[in-house]
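Researcher: I'm preparing a figure for a lab meeting and need a structural model of a single chain. I don't have an experimental structure, so a prediction will have to do for now. The sequence is pasted below. Please return the structure as tokens so I can convert it later.
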Amino acid sequence: MTEAMPTSPSSHGPRLTRRAFLATLAAGGAGLSAIAYARYAEPAWLEVSEIPLDPEIFPAPSRLRILHLSDLHFGPHVSLELIERAVELGLAQRPDLIALTGDFVTGRLREAAAYAAVLRRLSVVAPTLACLGNHDAIVATGPVDEAARTAAVMGLLRTAQVDVLVNETREVAVRGGRLRVSGLGDLWTKQNHPARCLTPIRGSGREPLAHLLLNHNPDARAAAMPYHWDLMLCGHTHGGQIGVPGLAEWLAPVRDKTHLEGSQNREGRLIHITRGVGSLYGVRFWCRPQVSLLVVG
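Model: Understood. Here is the structure written out token by token.
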């Protein structure tokens, strides 16, 4: 009777070990590739989005084109070159009106003259109006360095001939007609005061002109609802910045996690949240930076 040969411990072990090693290597490589993509590729991969506006809700002049840029975040992780490319892409859409909804810097303002020259390219083409974000604005008792940053950002925008609205309203001539544009102060820095620039709703009537509201943080919607406006433009969320379901909502710095980007009809009014141009820490994944163009149908 022939005795069965014992199985060598090494006859299958090395093969399995190699497979495990290759699987681990592939997973590690994919992980490193994803990290490299999120840090070096997607943050610079700008997307142009055209969003139709219902003229029944926003009764502005027909075919009005509004360029919406937000969260430029010029600073350590967002280059002026990226912002300039966003501006160029936006201007290529032939806007009639330009809205900037805050967070112009991260940290101290650098290269103010060069930055102003880039933003000035917007205001020479069309009326350009802005509100401030939490990275731009401070509370009245804020630290001296924050006060200096706010003054620097305000100076930057004035040099670029951008009309900064802090709880203020303007009437703007566009495309053969007129509309109202209001800008709210930032919510987080306790400067958001809609009563200072908006008219309370009484009864079922509407204002005679379409009313555009610039507001950095979409969570301020609740405080603005008792007042007249037709279209609110916001930023702040970065779309979650990491577009993985569940993670995006967790990362988004807002209470209302149901609307992180794009347009929604809220109680008969439109709210559009753009994903923004810049980012914090220079990282984006499945959430490309966005140049938004809103067009009245």
